[in-house]
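Kindly inspect the following:
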Amino acid sequence: AGLKTSKWHERAKKYGRGLGYGSVLAFNIKGGLEAGQKFVAGLKLHSHVANIGDVRSLVIHPASTTHSQLSPEEQASTGVFPGLVRLSVGLESIEDILADLEEGFKAVS
C-alpha cells in the first residue's frame, strides 16, 4: 500500500497518519509452488515461520504451509497463489536483508 500505484495507497496514507507503511509484503514468484518453496529455502537470514510482527525478518510460503489444507481453487479464492511468498521485514540491516533476498532469487533461477 506504500506504492502510489496500489489501490490501497490512499487508505494506507490516511490510517498510517504519515508515519510510514507496513513492513509486511507479499509477491508471486514465477514458477509456481516449486519456485516459491525454492525461494524460501534459499533464504538464510529470514526465519521461516507463520507469524508476523517480529523484530526478525520472516518469510512464509502460504501455499505449502498455512493454506496447504485448501484446494488450489480455495487457495486462489483467498488470494494465495502457488508462487506467493510473504515477507515481514525485521530490524536487521537493509544490506543483510537485500543480500538474503538475492540468495532467494538465485535459488529460483
Remarks:
- The longest strand covers residues 24-28.
- The mean pLDDT is 92.
- Strands lie at 24-28, 47-48, 58-60, 84-88.
- Residues 94-108 form the longest helix (15 residues).
